[in-house]
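Teaching soon. Got one?

===
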Amino acid sequence: MKLTKVQDRFIKNKNMGFSLMKGKSLTGKTLTALHRVINLENNYCIYNNDKILYISLEHDKARENERLYKDISKKEEFYSLFSLNEKRVSFNSIKVLIEKYSNKYLKYKNKNLKLISFEKGIEFLKHEEFIKILNEFLKKSKVLKRISIEELYDEILWIKSCNFSKEEYEITERKARKFRCVKNSFTRKAIYTLMEVYTNLLRNYESYDKYDETIFAIKYSKIINEFNKTVLPDDISPLAIFIGYNIRMLLLNKFGEFGRNLREIRDLYTDMAETTGTLWEHTAAETGSLNHALNSCVIDVIIEIKKNIGS
């Protein structure tokens, strides 16, 4: 497939933030995204732990995309200083990731819960405890009197799917449903409380639904992110890492990542400069040398950034 100019711009775009690609079916979105992956792999995976994850909705689609990626990579074999004999790109489906991370979360919390179906979940809205609280709310809410148990369950699941706090749900615009529920109303507060009752009943019966599964997966991803922040390889001295920072600065400028480079320089050197009045000291100055002259190269990097993006 021959790429269009628009697709080529998307593939080589140096913006490292979020990008959205839209198009009709069979217009080349997947192939464009895979070419983008290869471009990132060849030009931006600098360190050994730099990886790319390509996520598809279904497992079969993930495997098909992996096959296409390998075919394209063979045709466009590329070698650079960043090239390593290891796998940089992984393919997976969102469903597999959610299941994997939620199971790890349950294991981490030492919980033995079973995943229930939609049909099983709605039965909890007929539980004695749920009905008792619902009847109290029916005395003050005309909306709750009008809607069916299925519509109430659908609203409860919608809240869980968005992972809303009580405050967020009360002020959120809610459309595309048969009933109207005014923001910050008694009914909104009541429905959110009923959602909490439903979730508590699930736990009492050692169960969780598909939206809990997603919430568990998100919670586990945050847990491992916190772990990763504290990890330092045993064979790398903190007093030697600054050399890698300098190499990274030079490479980011080389590939035109001036804005990103400037942000990282500010994060690393601002405290150092304010404390010592210079960029020559290392961040671990209390245990390391105070005369790392190599850091002076950051001045040249900043001058180059200024030339390209201004002050």
Remarks:
- Strands lie at 52-56, 89-93, 114-115, 207-208.
- DSSP finds 14 helices and four strands in the chain.
